[in-house]
């Protein structure tokens, strides 16, 4: 057994580098390891590095070229980014739809309340208008009756005055004769 931890540096095929220290168990990794970016298993690579170090064959791994690294990262991230973007757009559309449905429902409730309020105001108003029309008809009849009565009273008054005039003439004729 090796008393000190062994430094492990792994270059994943996706281009990600990751490093850690490990205390090997029977010359192997005690637990599985995976790339933090693509989750590819790196346990075999770590076991190979541990075997080289324990057997005294250490040589640094060549770093991948920058272009290869960029291409690898771009090709591995592009589908994830597209999928994440699609998910974000769909979630935003769903949220907007929920908001629109809630606004439509609130407007529908408000419109229903307005209709009920209009009906509650309109019904007494129509009843009052109907009562006014009935009262106006009654008053017009009364006025027509009053006019007939006034006409008859005036006619009676005129007839009375004519009789008085005739009686005074008759009385004055008697006195002059």
Task: Give the gist of this structure.
The chain has two helices and two strands; from the N terminus they run E-E-H-H. It has 177 residues and is mostly helical.
How many H/I helical runs? Answer: 2
Global shape:
rod-shaped
Strand segment tally: 2
Helix/strand structural class: mainly alpha
SS strand fraction? 5-15%
- Work out the helicity level: 55-70%
Query: What is the alpha-carbon Rg in Å?
Result: 56 Å
Describe the structure.
With 177 residues, the chain is mainly alpha-helical. 69% of the residues lie in helices and 7% in strands. It is built from 2 helices and 2 strands; from the N terminus they run ββαα. The chain has helices at 43-54, 66-176; strands at 6-11, 17-22. A two-stranded antiparallel sheet has the order 1-2. The longest helix has 111 residues, at 66-176. It starts with 5 loop residues before the first strand and ends with a helix.
Which secondary structure elements does this structure contain, and how are they paired or packed?
Layout: E1 6-11, E2 17-22, H1 43-54, H2 66-176
Question: What are the key terms here?
Answer:
two-stranded antiparallel ribbon; mainly alpha; 177 residues; rod-shaped; 2 helices; 2 strands; 69% helix
């Amino acid at each position: 057994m090796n008393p000190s931890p062994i430094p492990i540096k792994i270059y994943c095929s996706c281009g990600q580098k990751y490093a850690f220290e490990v205390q090997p168990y029977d010359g192997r990794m005690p637990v599985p390891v995976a790339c933090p970016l693509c989750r590819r298993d790196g346990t075999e690579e770590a076991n190979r590095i541990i075997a080289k170090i324990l057997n005294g064959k250490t040589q640094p791994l060549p770093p991948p070229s920058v272009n290869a690294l960029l291409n690898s990262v771009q090709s591995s991230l592009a589908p994830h980014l597209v999928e994440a973007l699609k998910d974000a757009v769909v979630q935003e559309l769903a949220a907007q739809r929920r908001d629109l449905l809630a606004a439509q429902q609130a407007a529908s409730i408000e419109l229903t309340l307005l209709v009920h309020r209009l009906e509650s105001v309109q019904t007494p108003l129509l009843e009052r208008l109907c009562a006014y029309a009935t009262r106006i008809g009654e008053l017009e009849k009364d006025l027509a009756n009053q006019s007939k009565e006034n006409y008859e009273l005036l006619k009676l008054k005129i007839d009375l005055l004519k009789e008085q005039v005739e009686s005074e003439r008759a009385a004055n004729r008697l006195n002059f004769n």
